[in-house]
TrEMBL record:
The lineage of its organism: Bacteria, Pseudomonadati, Pseudomonadota, Alphaproteobacteria, Hyphomicrobiales. Residues 45-118, 191-252 form the NTP pyrophosphohydrolase MazG-like domain. This is Nucleoside triphosphate pyrophosphohydrolase. Signal peptide: none annotated. Belongs to the nucleoside triphosphate pyrophosphohydrolase family. It comes from Bradyrhizobium lablabi. It catalyses: ATP + H2O = AMP + diphosphate + H(+). It is an enzyme of class 3 (hydrolase). PANTHER family: NUCLEOSIDE TRIPHOSPHATE PYROPHOSPHOHYDROLASE. One of its GO terms (molecular function) is ATP diphosphatase activity. Its EC number is 3.6.1.8.
């Protein structure tokens, strides 16, 4: 086995031992990304390919909290921390910033946003006072960054500029549509949105006929965007609506599993028609 430059067998064995030291995690990530001796999968990743995993891990943290499972929360927070380390390592490889820079940025931000703690400032005693100061300082920071961007690029500021790009796609789509609606760029009737949904579905069918995978991805995105628009028009939160459907799917699929098990059968041994019939039974029982 070959090791990265400066790494001995002793050092390698140390990597095999769990550690409470963040430097160990940074070293492990560096090792995984080392050409020639690292992990092929880790080495071929970039910011774009890792971003979906970062979002997924954040949701798993939220899920562990919702379930009140602190054991899982510990593990999921570790997975989320790994995502930060992964992104920081890739940035360091491009001489953009390092993990230390990330830590410095957030510590500077936390000190600045808590003047009542770190600046010996009196008068911010209640949670509402603290929250108000946090929002004010955050707005100041945002204005500073916006001014820097405007100075760097003298370009037109879009109505949609204030929509956060880093939020979940469903929430971002909802906010983009809300912003556009303030200037009249919107449908007046949910039925018009339904017409758009049917139009997008037809375009997906046409893309299927052409077998164009890139077009299919784009058209599927258009359909999802139109569905979010429908949810907005009827006053439904698309995230909560989808979560409800996910729970319903799990519940009905669980019924199929239990019924087949009671018959001494497996999912693999059942036909689609049989599973569909059980699905309808579950639906009728709700």
């Amino acid at each position: 086995m070959s090791f990265p430059s400066g790494l001995s067998v002793f050092h390698f064995r140390c990597f095999m031992t769990p550690s409470r030291d963040i430097s160990r995690l940074l070293e492990i990530m560096a090792m995984l990304r080392t050409p020639g001796s690292g992990c092929p999968w880790d080495m071929e990743q970039n910011f774009a390919t890792i971003a979906p995993y970062t979002i997924e891990e954040a949701y798993e943290v939220a899920d562990a909290i919702a379930r009140g499972d602190l054991h899982d929360l510990r593990d999921e927070l570790g997975d989320l921390l790994l995502q930060v380390v992964f992104h920081a390592r890739m940035a360091e490889e491009q001489n953009a910033f390092s993990f230390g820079d990330v830590v410095e940025a957030i510590t500077r931000k936390m000190i600045r946003r808590h003047p009542h703690v770190f600046a010996d400032q009196d008068g911010l005693l209640t949670p509402s006072d603290v929250k108000g100061a946090w929002e004010r300082i955050k707005a100041e920071e945002k204005a500073e960054r916006a001014a820097e961007r405007l100075a760097a690029e003298a370009s037109h500021k879009s109505l949609l500029s204030s929509v956060k790009a880093g939020q979940p796609a469903l929430a971002q789509a909802m906010e983009l549509q809300r912003k556009a609606s303030t200037v009249g760029f919107d449908w007046n009737d949910p039925r018009a949105v339904l017409h758009k949904i049917r139009e997008e579905a037809d375009e997906i069918e046409q893309a299927l006929d052409r077998g164009d995978s890139q077009e299919l991805r784009e058209e599927t995105g258009d359909l999802l965007f139109a569905l979010v628009n429908l949810a907005r028009h009827i006053g439904a939160d698309p995230e909560m609506a989808l979560r409800g459907t996910n729970a319903k799917f799990e519940r009905r699929f669980g019924y199929i599993e239990r019924e087949l098990q009671s018959q001494g059968r497996s999912l693999e041994g059942a036909s689609l028609a049989e599973m569909d019939a059980l699905w309808n039974e579950a639906k009728e029982k709700e």
